[in-house]
Structure formats: C-alpha cells, structure tokens
C-alpha cells in the first residue's frame, strides 16, 4: 500500500481541503532531534508547530523541556492552559496589554522569560507597568550573525549586542534596574540553523558549508566569552542556542545548556536541503481535484499557502503524493486554484486528492482550524490548531 493510499484511506470520510500530521513521522523526527542533541535538552519552538496537542505530545517525551514562544500573549496563554511552566519568549515585546497580564499573574511571572537586547526594552516595560512593577524575568539576546569583514553581515538581523563587552555592559544595566532579573542568554545562528547546505549547485553547497563551519567556530568562541562576561555580572539559569539545522554545532558549544528546535518535528520542504539530517514529512495537506482543463493538467481547489521570507520558488508548497506532480511555472499555487501537471496528473479524476507539503513548519496551522492526527491508515484523533482554538498571535 502506497503512502498516498494510506492517507486517503485514513481520511476517506473527510472532505478536503484538510491537513494531517503523521504521528509516526512526527515521533520519529522527535527521536532524531533528541539523538542529534546528544543529551542536551531541547526547548520546543512553538511557532514551528502552532498546535497545543502536538506541543504537549513532544513535551511529554524525554529530552524536551519547555517552550520557546514567539509572542508574550502566546506564552501567557500556554501558562493559563497548563501546557508548561517554562517558557522563553524569543522576540522582544511591545505589547502593553500582555505585559500587564504578565505582571498581574504570579504564575506567569514565574514561568515566562521575555527577550531584551537594549535599555529601550526595559524602558518599554517600565512605561507599560510603572516603575514599581513586580520582578520580570528577562533573557539577553546576543547577535549570532557572522561578520567576517567590516560591512559584511551573514545571518538574521536581530540583537545589537554582538561583543562580550557589549553583553557585559548591558547585563550590568539590567542588574541595576529594579523590577528585572536577568536569567538567561540566547543566540540564534540563523545562517547555520536556517540555511540548508545540500541544495542547489555544487559550488553553492560548498560555499555554504564553508561559511557555516567558519561561522560556527567564530560564534562558539564569541558566545563563550560573552556568556562568561555576563556570568561575571550575575548567575544565569540557561544559555539557549541553535535551531533544527544547527543542533550539532550548537550542542558542541560547552556554554550552551539547551537547544531550540521545532521545524525538525514537522519536516517542511525548506528542511530538505541539509546534509546533517533528513526529517520525515509529518504535516501534509490535501486538496481536491476540481477541474481537468487538459489531459496533462489537473486543477486543485485552493492551495496558495505561500510561506514567509524572501519571495521565490522555495516558499511555494510542493505536490508530494501521488508522486510525479509539479506546479505550473506560469501559475503556481493560487488563492482559489492550483493546477498541477506531470505523469501522475493524467490519471487524476474529479474529487481525487493531491497531498502537498508546506515550505515552513508552523505556517500551515494558520490555514487550517484542525489537524487530523494519522496513525497508520486511521485518524487517531482530530485536534485544533492555534487557529482552531481562536488564537491569533500576529
């Protein structure tokens, strides 16, 4: 029995469009992440999952501890739902209402750490809460980009704190401010974690691999020095680093106490191009065939689920099952229809399903209210995504 037949059989009583998560693939991916982490705990990146039932599933597995959320409001919601009592918010917040909710809840304050990288972030918290607010847990973000020469920046644009001296200076500023407690340091190496080294032309792959080796070596030296500089100011509870694509190099850094990962649980198309690991596709969505404009083309309903990031072919969903299908270059995946062509298109009939993969891990959950959790040839249960729980965190 082919995989396509298994998914079709499992969802035969459901009308597409629909989304499934293959639990066997999800669990296998979790095992692979844990193996790659080599004993260091993994903090689960919620934006790559965006489904509370799946987050609870992975947090119940050995080797996974706590969440990394992308918004403060999301973190507070998880505390209220009892998902976990250990959350780091990966991005600074300007949400005054969420800050007031954080300050008003002793449980939330004990569970949640917010991200800061400048005195302006501390000023914003004071402006939202007043200068006599309860103690707020904060994490200092160190910029993890690679800057081999003046004016060259390789990586994501995040914190202005780059050097150990800058980290120490800011740590002193945090410690001197009443109402704040510095408990952690985070450094996200996007140029390693989020960039595949096994896709594209041979020369391009070689350049990326060379850059990542050099960047990892530089970061490990600089991050170690920065952490030691901060620890000279105040004790730290954790040092977080990495992402799905950099688990090995991040884990090799002795100062890192935990690794962030999430996309590796889902296995989207953007994570097909890595030499270090091969995740199994766990989240799929099915679209029905609604037209046959020619013998070689089948048109699917809906499907324009384009991923965030730089516009291009890598952000477009890709046909997965049945094999042998591809999008049309001049039309692509559309808001209301998605034509596919290829050898398999000739045998598709009206009402047949085509299974596709999203380019990014968590954004599919913004398109569907529910995930059908498939185990073998049956739906074990159906669970709401964030959207299905009426939660939208921007």
UniProtKB/TrEMBL annotation:
CDD domains: PLPDE_III_DSD_D-TA_like_2 (cd06813)
Domain spans labelled Alanine racemase N-terminal: 21-210
Pfam families membership: Ala_racemase_N
One GO molecular-function entry: D-serine ammonia-lyase activity
GO biological process: D-serine catabolic process
Protein name as it appears in the record: Amino acid deaminase/aldolase
Native source species: Amycolatopsis iheyensis
């Amino acid at each position: 029995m082919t995989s396509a037949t298994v998914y079709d059989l499992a969802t035969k009583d459901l009308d597409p469009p629909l989304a499934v998560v293959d639990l066997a693939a999800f669990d296998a991916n979790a095992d692979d992440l844990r193996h790659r982490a080599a004993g260091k705990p993994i903090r689960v990146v919620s934006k790559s999952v965006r489904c509370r039932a799946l987050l609870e599933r992975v947090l119940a597995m050995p080797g996974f501890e706590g969440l990394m959320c992308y918004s403060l409001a999301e973190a507070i919601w998880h505390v209220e739902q009892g998902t976990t009592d250990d959350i780091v918010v990966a991005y600074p917040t300007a949400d005054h209402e969420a800050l007031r909710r954080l300050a008003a809840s002793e449980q939330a304050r004990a569970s949640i750490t917010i991200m800061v990288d400048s005195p302006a972030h501390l000023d914003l918290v004071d402006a939202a809460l007043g200068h006599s607010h309860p103690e707020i847990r904060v994490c200092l973000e160190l910029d993890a980009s690679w800057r081999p020469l003046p004016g060259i920046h390789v990586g994501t644009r995040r914190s202005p704190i780059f050097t150990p001296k800058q980290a120490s200076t800011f740590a002193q500023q945090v410690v001197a401010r009443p109402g704040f407690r510095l408990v952690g340091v985070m450094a996200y190496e996007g140029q390693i974690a989020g960039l595949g080294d096994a896709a594209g032309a041979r020369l391009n792959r070689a350049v990326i691999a060379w850059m990542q080796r050099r960047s990892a070596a530089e970061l490990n030296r600089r991050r170690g020095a920065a952490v030691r500089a901060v620890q000279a100011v105040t004790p730290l509870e954790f040092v977080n680093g990495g992402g799905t694509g950099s688990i090995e190099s991040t884990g090799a850094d002795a100062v890192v106490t935990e690794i962030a990962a999430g996309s590796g649980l889902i296995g989207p198309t953007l994570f097909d191009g890595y030499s270090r690991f091969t995740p199994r596709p766990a989240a799929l969505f099915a679209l029905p065939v609604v037209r046959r404009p020619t013998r070689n083309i089948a048109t699917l309903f809906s499907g324009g689920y384009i991923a965030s990031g730089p516009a291009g072919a890598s952000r477009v969903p890709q046909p997965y099952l049945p094999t042998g299908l591809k999008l049309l270059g001049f039309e692509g995946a559309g808001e209301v229809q998605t034509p596919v062509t290829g050898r398999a298109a000739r045998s598709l009939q009206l009402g047949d399903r085509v299974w596709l993969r999203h380019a990014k891990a968590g954004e599919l959950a913004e398109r569907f209210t529910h995930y059908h959790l498939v185990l073998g040839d049956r739906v074990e249960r159906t669970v709401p995504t964030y959207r299905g729980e009426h939660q939208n965190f921007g």
